[in-house]
Amino acid sequence: MHYDLTTLPNGLRIISQDMPSLRSLSIGAWVDTGSRDEVPAEAGASHFLEHLLFKGSAQWSARRISEAFDAIGARHNAFTSKEYTCYWARLRDADLPLGVEILGEMIQRPAFRQEEIDNERGVVLEEINMNEDDPTDVAHEQFVTALWSGHPLSPPILGTPDSITTMSRDTIHGYWARRYSPESTVIAAAGRIDHGRLVDIVGASFAGWEGGDVGRALSAPDPNAGVSVRHRDTEQAHLILGGPSIMRNDDRRYALIVADHVLGGGMSSRLFREIRELRGLAYAVHAFRMPFADAGANAVYVGTTPNQTNEVLKLVRGEMDKLMESGVTDEELVRAKGHVQGSLAISLEDADGRMNRLGRNEITGLEHVSVDEIVARVDAVSTADVIEVARAAYAGPYVIGATGPFEDADLEEFVR
Protein backbone atom coordinates (compact mmCIF):
# COMPACT_ATOMS: atom_id res chain seq x y z
CA MET A 1 0.00 0.00 0.00
CA HIS A 2 1.81 3.10 -1.19
CA TYR A 3 1.03 6.36 0.52
CA ASP A 4 2.86 9.62 1.16
CA LEU A 5 3.04 11.24 4.60
CA THR A 6 4.40 14.69 5.41
CA THR A 7 4.37 16.54 8.73
CA LEU A 8 4.45 20.34 8.61
CA PRO A 9 6.64 22.25 11.11
CA ASN A 10 3.53 23.05 13.19
CA GLY A 11 2.73 19.34 13.57
CA LEU A 12 -0.08 19.04 11.01
CA ARG A 13 0.11 15.70 9.20
CA ILE A 14 -0.73 15.35 5.51
CA ILE A 15 -1.26 11.85 4.11
CA SER A 16 -2.34 10.95 0.60
CA GLN A 17 -2.66 8.14 -1.92
CA ASP A 18 -2.66 8.76 -5.65
CA MET A 19 -5.29 7.09 -7.86
CA PRO A 20 -4.24 8.40 -11.30
CA SER A 21 -7.12 6.82 -13.21
CA LEU A 22 -9.61 9.16 -11.49
CA ARG A 23 -10.45 12.77 -12.27
CA SER A 24 -11.64 13.53 -8.74
CA LEU A 25 -10.39 13.24 -5.20
CA SER A 26 -11.67 12.95 -1.65
CA ILE A 27 -10.13 15.09 1.08
CA GLY A 28 -10.83 15.07 4.80
CA ALA A 29 -9.66 17.04 7.81
CA TRP A 30 -9.56 14.57 10.72
CA VAL A 31 -9.45 16.04 14.23
CA ASP A 32 -8.46 13.88 17.19
CA THR A 33 -11.43 14.77 19.36
CA GLY A 34 -14.83 13.28 20.08
CA SER A 35 -17.45 12.85 22.76
CA ARG A 36 -15.05 11.00 25.07
CA ASP A 37 -12.98 14.19 25.41
CA GLU A 38 -15.81 16.34 26.79
CA VAL A 39 -16.35 17.32 30.40
CA PRO A 40 -20.00 17.19 31.59
CA ALA A 41 -20.65 20.86 30.77
CA GLU A 42 -19.46 20.16 27.21
CA ALA A 43 -21.60 17.06 26.58
CA GLY A 44 -22.31 17.05 22.85
CA ALA A 45 -19.81 19.84 22.07
CA SER A 46 -17.84 17.77 19.52
CA HIS A 47 -20.96 17.15 17.46
CA PHE A 48 -22.27 20.71 17.98
CA LEU A 49 -18.94 21.99 16.63
CA GLU A 50 -19.30 19.74 13.59
CA HIS A 51 -22.45 21.71 12.75
CA LEU A 52 -21.12 25.13 13.68
CA LEU A 53 -17.92 24.97 11.66
CA PHE A 54 -20.01 24.88 8.48
CA LYS A 55 -21.30 28.31 9.52
CA GLY A 56 -17.87 29.53 8.49
CA SER A 57 -15.47 32.28 9.45
CA ALA A 58 -15.50 36.05 9.16
CA GLN A 59 -14.50 35.67 5.50
CA TRP A 60 -16.58 32.60 4.61
CA SER A 61 -20.26 32.62 5.60
CA ALA A 62 -22.35 29.46 5.64
CA ARG A 63 -24.04 30.55 2.43
CA ARG A 64 -20.74 31.24 0.71
CA ILE A 65 -19.43 27.79 1.68
CA SER A 66 -22.54 26.06 0.30
CA GLU A 67 -22.56 28.09 -2.90
CA ALA A 68 -18.83 27.53 -3.50
CA PHE A 69 -19.15 23.76 -3.16
CA ASP A 70 -22.32 23.71 -5.28
CA ALA A 71 -20.64 25.74 -8.02
CA ILE A 72 -18.03 23.03 -8.58
CA GLY A 73 -20.36 20.03 -8.15
CA ALA A 74 -18.66 18.93 -4.95
CA ARG A 75 -20.11 16.81 -2.16
CA HIS A 76 -19.25 17.79 1.40
CA ASN A 77 -20.24 16.82 4.91
CA ALA A 78 -18.84 15.83 8.31
CA PHE A 79 -19.28 13.22 11.01
CA THR A 80 -18.45 12.90 14.69
CA SER A 81 -17.54 9.78 16.65
CA LYS A 82 -16.52 9.12 20.22
CA GLU A 83 -12.84 9.64 19.35
CA TYR A 84 -12.56 11.81 16.23
CA THR A 85 -14.34 14.30 13.98
CA CYS A 86 -13.97 14.48 10.20
CA TYR A 87 -14.83 17.26 7.74
CA TRP A 88 -14.68 16.03 4.15
CA ALA A 89 -15.28 16.97 0.53
CA ARG A 90 -15.34 15.04 -2.76
CA LEU A 91 -14.43 17.25 -5.71
CA ARG A 92 -12.70 17.48 -9.06
CA ASP A 93 -8.91 17.33 -8.88
CA ALA A 94 -8.59 20.82 -10.38
CA ASP A 95 -10.70 22.24 -7.53
CA LEU A 96 -8.38 21.06 -4.74
CA PRO A 97 -7.14 24.58 -3.83
CA LEU A 98 -10.69 25.79 -3.22
CA GLY A 99 -11.55 22.75 -1.11
CA VAL A 100 -8.47 23.21 1.08
CA GLU A 101 -9.13 26.94 1.44
CA ILE A 102 -12.67 26.32 2.69
CA LEU A 103 -11.60 23.58 5.11
CA GLY A 104 -8.81 25.82 6.39
CA GLU A 105 -11.20 28.68 7.14
CA MET A 106 -13.74 26.41 8.80
CA ILE A 107 -11.30 24.65 11.10
CA GLN A 108 -8.86 27.43 12.01
CA ARG A 109 -11.08 30.52 12.13
CA PRO A 110 -14.70 29.63 13.01
CA ALA A 111 -16.82 32.73 13.62
CA PHE A 112 -19.12 31.37 16.37
CA ARG A 113 -21.77 34.02 15.69
CA GLN A 114 -24.32 33.95 18.51
CA GLU A 115 -27.32 34.01 16.19
CA GLU A 116 -26.00 31.04 14.23
CA ILE A 117 -25.23 29.14 17.43
CA ASP A 118 -28.81 29.64 18.59
CA ASN A 119 -30.24 28.57 15.23
CA GLU A 120 -28.05 25.49 15.00
CA ARG A 121 -28.87 24.60 18.61
CA GLY A 122 -32.41 23.97 17.41
CA VAL A 123 -31.15 21.75 14.58
CA VAL A 124 -29.08 19.64 16.97
CA LEU A 125 -32.02 19.30 19.36
CA GLU A 126 -34.15 18.06 16.45
CA GLU A 127 -31.44 15.52 15.64
CA ILE A 128 -31.56 14.30 19.23
CA ASN A 129 -35.36 14.07 18.99
CA MET A 130 -35.04 12.09 15.76
CA ASN A 131 -32.70 9.59 17.43
CA GLU A 132 -35.07 9.32 20.38
CA ASP A 133 -37.80 8.32 17.92
CA ASP A 134 -35.63 5.52 16.52
CA PRO A 135 -35.90 2.56 18.92
CA THR A 136 -32.78 0.95 17.44
CA ASP A 137 -30.69 4.01 18.29
CA VAL A 138 -32.18 4.12 21.77
CA ALA A 139 -31.35 0.45 22.38
CA HIS A 140 -27.79 1.09 21.25
CA GLU A 141 -27.39 4.01 23.66
CA GLN A 142 -28.87 1.91 26.47
CA PHE A 143 -26.30 -0.80 25.77
CA VAL A 144 -23.29 1.54 25.60
CA THR A 145 -24.32 3.47 28.70
CA ALA A 146 -24.81 0.27 30.71
CA LEU A 147 -21.62 -1.39 29.45
CA TRP A 148 -19.29 1.56 30.06
CA SER A 149 -21.10 3.30 32.90
CA GLY A 150 -18.95 6.08 34.36
CA HIS A 151 -16.33 5.82 31.60
CA PRO A 152 -15.67 8.58 29.00
CA LEU A 153 -16.96 6.25 26.25
CA SER A 154 -20.38 6.06 27.87
CA PRO A 155 -22.10 9.43 27.11
CA PRO A 156 -23.99 9.85 23.82
CA ILE A 157 -22.21 11.61 20.97
CA LEU A 158 -25.11 14.03 20.44
CA GLY A 159 -25.22 15.16 24.05
CA THR A 160 -28.53 15.60 25.85
CA PRO A 161 -31.34 18.12 25.42
CA ASP A 162 -30.25 19.82 28.65
CA SER A 163 -26.56 20.03 27.73
CA ILE A 164 -27.25 21.41 24.25
CA THR A 165 -29.88 23.87 25.48
CA THR A 166 -27.59 25.34 28.14
CA MET A 167 -24.28 25.24 26.23
CA SER A 168 -22.92 28.78 25.88
CA ARG A 169 -20.79 30.32 23.17
CA ASP A 170 -17.89 30.49 25.63
CA THR A 171 -18.16 26.76 26.34
CA ILE A 172 -18.19 25.89 22.65
CA HIS A 173 -15.33 28.25 21.85
CA GLY A 174 -13.33 26.94 24.80
CA TYR A 175 -13.75 23.35 23.67
CA TRP A 176 -12.64 24.23 20.13
CA ALA A 177 -9.60 26.16 21.45
CA ARG A 178 -8.63 23.24 23.72
CA ARG A 179 -9.10 20.36 21.30
CA TYR A 180 -8.47 21.74 17.78
CA SER A 181 -4.79 22.20 16.93
CA PRO A 182 -2.40 21.31 14.08
CA GLU A 183 -0.89 18.49 16.15
CA SER A 184 -4.32 16.95 16.65
CA THR A 185 -5.30 17.18 12.97
CA VAL A 186 -4.64 15.04 9.90
CA ILE A 187 -5.37 16.09 6.32
CA ALA A 188 -6.03 12.90 4.33
CA ALA A 189 -6.65 12.73 0.60
CA ALA A 190 -7.07 10.05 -2.04
CA GLY A 191 -7.78 10.21 -5.74
CA ARG A 192 -6.03 11.98 -8.60
CA ILE A 193 -3.50 13.85 -6.53
CA ASP A 194 0.14 14.83 -6.47
CA HIS A 195 1.41 14.74 -2.89
CA GLY A 196 3.90 17.56 -3.32
CA ARG A 197 1.22 19.84 -4.73
CA LEU A 198 -1.12 18.85 -1.88
CA VAL A 199 1.54 19.72 0.71
CA ASP A 200 2.10 23.12 -0.91
CA ILE A 201 -1.62 23.93 -0.99
CA VAL A 202 -2.28 22.73 2.57
CA GLY A 203 0.84 24.50 3.81
CA ALA A 204 -0.34 27.79 2.34
CA SER A 205 -3.64 27.50 4.23
CA PHE A 206 -2.56 25.86 7.49
CA ALA A 207 1.12 26.72 8.09
CA GLY A 208 0.27 29.68 10.36
CA TRP A 209 -1.94 27.59 12.65
CA GLU A 210 -0.47 27.17 16.12
CA GLY A 211 -1.15 24.77 18.98
CA GLY A 212 0.32 21.72 20.65
CA ASP A 213 -0.64 18.12 21.28
CA VAL A 214 -4.07 17.98 22.93
CA GLY A 215 -3.56 14.50 24.41
CA ARG A 216 -6.13 12.13 25.85
CA ALA A 217 -6.24 10.25 29.14
CA LEU A 218 -6.90 6.55 28.58
CA SER A 219 -8.31 4.21 31.20
CA ALA A 220 -9.75 0.73 30.93
CA PRO A 221 -13.41 0.52 31.95
CA ASP A 222 -14.61 -2.03 34.47
CA PRO A 223 -17.88 -3.36 33.02
CA ASN A 224 -20.41 -5.34 35.01
CA ALA A 225 -23.30 -7.50 33.89
CA GLY A 226 -26.57 -5.63 33.67
CA VAL A 227 -29.75 -4.77 31.80
CA SER A 228 -30.90 -1.33 30.69
CA VAL A 229 -34.36 -1.13 29.13
CA ARG A 230 -36.12 1.96 27.82
CA HIS A 231 -39.75 0.97 28.39
CA ARG A 232 -41.94 1.69 25.37
CA ASP A 233 -45.14 0.09 24.14
CA THR A 234 -43.69 -0.78 20.74
CA GLU A 235 -44.77 -3.43 18.27
CA GLN A 236 -41.20 -4.73 18.13
CA ALA A 237 -38.57 -5.23 20.80
CA HIS A 238 -35.10 -3.96 19.89
CA LEU A 239 -32.39 -5.90 21.71
CA ILE A 240 -28.62 -5.62 21.94
CA LEU A 241 -26.77 -8.33 23.84
CA GLY A 242 -23.01 -8.26 24.24
CA GLY A 243 -20.10 -7.40 26.44
CA PRO A 244 -16.47 -6.26 26.63
CA SER A 245 -14.09 -7.32 23.89
CA ILE A 246 -10.56 -6.71 22.56
CA MET A 247 -9.15 -3.24 21.92
CA ARG A 248 -8.56 -1.62 18.55
CA ASN A 249 -4.88 -2.51 18.08
CA ASP A 250 -5.11 -6.11 19.30
CA ASP A 251 -3.37 -8.50 16.88
CA ARG A 252 -6.33 -10.86 17.20
CA ARG A 253 -8.63 -8.42 15.42
CA TYR A 254 -8.39 -10.28 12.12
CA ALA A 255 -9.54 -13.50 13.77
CA LEU A 256 -12.37 -11.56 15.41
CA ILE A 257 -13.56 -10.19 12.07
CA VAL A 258 -13.79 -13.78 10.85
CA ALA A 259 -15.60 -14.91 14.02
CA ASP A 260 -18.08 -12.02 13.80
CA HIS A 261 -18.94 -12.86 10.21
CA VAL A 262 -19.63 -16.50 11.04
CA LEU A 263 -21.77 -15.54 14.02
CA GLY A 264 -23.83 -12.74 12.52
CA GLY A 265 -22.13 -11.05 9.59
CA GLY A 266 -24.33 -11.91 6.64
CA MET A 267 -27.20 -13.94 5.23
CA SER A 268 -25.17 -17.14 5.60
CA SER A 269 -24.28 -16.45 9.25
CA ARG A 270 -25.38 -18.71 12.06
CA LEU A 271 -27.68 -16.17 13.70
CA PHE A 272 -29.34 -15.12 10.45
CA ARG A 273 -29.94 -18.72 9.47
CA GLU A 274 -31.14 -19.87 12.91
CA ILE A 275 -33.26 -16.88 13.94
CA ARG A 276 -34.61 -15.60 10.64
CA GLU A 277 -34.43 -18.36 8.04
CA LEU A 278 -35.27 -21.44 10.12
CA ARG A 279 -37.57 -19.92 12.76
CA GLY A 280 -38.87 -16.66 11.30
CA LEU A 281 -38.34 -14.83 14.61
CA ALA A 282 -36.81 -11.62 13.24
CA TYR A 283 -36.27 -9.59 10.13
CA ALA A 284 -32.93 -8.08 11.20
CA VAL A 285 -30.20 -9.76 13.21
CA HIS A 286 -26.46 -9.07 13.05
CA ALA A 287 -23.26 -9.01 15.07
CA PHE A 288 -21.08 -5.92 15.39
CA ARG A 289 -18.01 -4.68 17.24
CA MET A 290 -16.91 -1.34 18.72
CA PRO A 291 -13.10 -1.16 19.07
CA PHE A 292 -11.41 1.76 20.84
CA ALA A 293 -7.97 2.63 22.18
CA ASP A 294 -8.65 1.47 25.74
CA ALA A 295 -11.75 -0.70 25.40
CA GLY A 296 -13.73 -2.84 23.02
CA ALA A 297 -17.19 -4.37 22.77
CA ASN A 298 -18.87 -7.08 20.75
CA ALA A 299 -22.62 -7.44 20.55
CA VAL A 300 -25.58 -8.78 18.61
CA TYR A 301 -28.59 -6.71 17.57
CA VAL A 302 -31.96 -8.30 16.90
CA GLY A 303 -35.45 -6.90 16.43
CA THR A 304 -38.36 -9.21 17.27
CA THR A 305 -41.89 -9.14 18.62
CA PRO A 306 -41.95 -8.78 22.42
CA ASN A 307 -43.45 -12.20 23.09
CA GLN A 308 -40.55 -13.84 21.23
CA THR A 309 -37.82 -11.97 23.12
CA ASN A 310 -36.93 -14.79 25.52
CA GLU A 311 -36.63 -17.36 22.74
CA VAL A 312 -34.46 -15.05 20.63
CA LEU A 313 -32.10 -14.15 23.48
CA LYS A 314 -31.67 -17.84 24.36
CA LEU A 315 -30.72 -18.54 20.75
CA VAL A 316 -28.21 -15.67 20.68
CA ARG A 317 -26.54 -16.83 23.90
CA GLY A 318 -26.54 -20.39 22.58
CA GLU A 319 -24.76 -19.46 19.37
CA MET A 320 -22.19 -17.43 21.29
CA ASP A 321 -21.51 -20.45 23.50
CA LYS A 322 -21.09 -22.74 20.48
CA LEU A 323 -18.60 -20.34 18.90
CA MET A 324 -16.54 -20.25 22.10
CA GLU A 325 -16.67 -24.01 22.57
CA SER A 326 -16.01 -25.39 19.09
CA GLY A 327 -15.14 -22.47 16.84
CA VAL A 328 -16.08 -22.74 13.18
CA THR A 329 -16.21 -25.43 10.54
CA ASP A 330 -13.70 -25.54 7.70
CA GLU A 331 -16.42 -24.47 5.28
CA GLU A 332 -17.43 -21.50 7.46
CA LEU A 333 -13.79 -20.47 7.84
CA VAL A 334 -13.19 -20.43 4.09
CA ARG A 335 -16.43 -18.54 3.42
CA ALA A 336 -15.76 -15.94 6.12
CA LYS A 337 -12.22 -15.31 4.92
CA GLY A 338 -13.44 -14.83 1.37
CA HIS A 339 -16.10 -12.40 2.53
CA VAL A 340 -13.65 -10.31 4.56
CA GLN A 341 -11.13 -10.16 1.74
CA GLY A 342 -13.69 -9.36 -0.94
CA SER A 343 -15.43 -6.70 1.11
CA LEU A 344 -12.11 -4.99 1.81
CA ALA A 345 -11.15 -4.88 -1.86
CA ILE A 346 -14.54 -3.49 -2.86
CA SER A 347 -14.46 -0.81 -0.14
CA LEU A 348 -11.17 0.55 -1.51
CA GLU A 349 -12.30 0.85 -5.11
CA ASP A 350 -13.16 4.55 -4.74
CA ALA A 351 -11.46 7.65 -3.38
CA ASP A 352 -13.84 8.01 -0.42
CA GLY A 353 -13.01 4.53 0.88
CA ARG A 354 -9.28 5.07 0.62
CA MET A 355 -9.34 8.56 2.14
CA ASN A 356 -11.39 7.32 5.07
CA ARG A 357 -9.02 4.42 5.66
CA LEU A 358 -5.93 6.65 5.50
CA GLY A 359 -7.39 9.31 7.78
CA ARG A 360 -8.90 6.94 10.32
CA ASN A 361 -5.74 4.83 10.65
CA GLU A 362 -3.48 7.87 10.95
CA ILE A 363 -5.61 9.72 13.52
CA THR A 364 -6.06 6.59 15.66
CA GLY A 365 -2.45 5.41 15.42
CA LEU A 366 -3.14 2.17 13.57
CA GLU A 367 -0.55 0.94 11.09
CA HIS A 368 -1.19 1.47 7.38
CA VAL A 369 -1.42 -2.08 6.05
CA SER A 370 -1.79 -3.00 2.38
CA VAL A 371 -4.66 -5.09 1.07
CA ASP A 372 -2.23 -7.92 0.33
CA GLU A 373 -0.94 -7.84 3.91
CA ILE A 374 -4.47 -7.93 5.32
CA VAL A 375 -5.40 -10.79 2.99
CA ALA A 376 -2.36 -12.70 4.25
CA ARG A 377 -3.25 -12.06 7.89
CA VAL A 378 -6.84 -13.17 7.33
CA ASP A 379 -5.64 -16.25 5.46
CA ALA A 380 -3.51 -17.16 8.48
CA VAL A 381 -6.51 -17.29 10.84
CA SER A 382 -7.15 -20.82 12.13
CA THR A 383 -10.05 -22.44 13.94
CA ALA A 384 -8.00 -22.30 17.13
CA ASP A 385 -7.53 -18.55 16.63
CA VAL A 386 -11.29 -18.10 16.26
CA ILE A 387 -12.00 -20.01 19.47
CA GLU A 388 -9.41 -17.98 21.38
CA VAL A 389 -10.69 -14.61 20.23
CA ALA A 390 -14.34 -15.64 20.64
CA ARG A 391 -13.63 -16.39 24.28
CA ALA A 392 -12.12 -12.92 24.64
CA ALA A 393 -15.02 -11.21 22.85
CA TYR A 394 -18.14 -13.15 23.83
CA ALA A 395 -17.52 -14.52 27.32
CA GLY A 396 -19.13 -11.65 29.21
CA PRO A 397 -19.90 -10.05 31.56
CA TYR A 398 -23.05 -9.67 29.48
CA VAL A 399 -25.04 -6.49 29.07
CA ILE A 400 -28.40 -5.96 27.41
CA GLY A 401 -29.62 -2.66 26.05
CA ALA A 402 -33.21 -2.73 24.87
CA THR A 403 -36.29 -0.81 23.84
CA GLY A 404 -39.66 -2.45 24.31
CA PRO A 405 -42.66 -3.16 26.54
CA PHE A 406 -40.81 -4.72 29.45
CA GLU A 407 -38.65 -3.87 32.47
CA ASP A 408 -35.02 -4.57 33.32
CA ALA A 409 -35.93 -7.51 35.56
CA ASP A 410 -37.69 -9.27 32.67
CA LEU A 411 -34.36 -9.80 30.87
CA GLU A 412 -31.91 -10.32 33.74
CA GLU A 413 -31.72 -14.10 33.30
CA PHE A 414 -29.94 -13.61 29.97
CA VAL A 415 -26.94 -11.75 31.44
CA ARG A 416 -26.12 -14.36 34.06
Tell me, what's the shape? globular
What integer value in Å does the Rg equal? 23 Å
The count of DSSP E runs of length 2 or more, i.e. the number of strands, is: 11
Distance between the termini: 45 Å
At CATH level 2, the architecture of the largest domain is 2-Layer Sandwich
Residues in helix, %: 40-55%
| Order of SSEs | EEEHHEEHHHHHEHEEHHEEHHHHHE
Count of DSSP H/I helices: 15
The main β sheet shows up as:
6 strands, mixed
Structural class based on helices, strands and sheet pairing:
alpha+beta
CATH superfamily of the largest domain: Metalloenzyme, LuxS/M16 peptidase-like
CATH topology grouping of the largest domain: Cytochrome Bc1 Complex, Chain A, domain 1
Assigned CATH class of the largest domain? Alpha Beta
Low-confidence stretches: none
How much strand content do the residues show? 15-25%
- Mean pLDDT over the residues: 96
| Biggest sheet strand line-up | 1-2-6-3-5-4
Total discrete domains: 2
Write a structural description.
This protein is of the alpha+beta class. It has two domains: 4-206, 2-Layer Sandwich (Cytochrome Bc1 Complex, Chain A, domain 1); 226-415, Metalloenzyme, LuxS/M16 peptidase-like (Cytochrome Bc1 Complex, Chain A, domain 1), CATH 3.30.830. 44% of the residues lie in helices and 18% in strands. It contains 15 helices and eleven strands. The chain has a six-stranded mixed β-sheet with strand order 1-2-6-3-5-4, sandwiched between helices. It has a five-stranded mixed β-sheet with strand order 7-11-8-10-9. α1 (45-52) crosses α7, α9 packs across α12 and α10 (270-277) runs antiparallel to α11. The radius of gyration is 23 Å and the shape is globular. The mean pLDDT is 96.
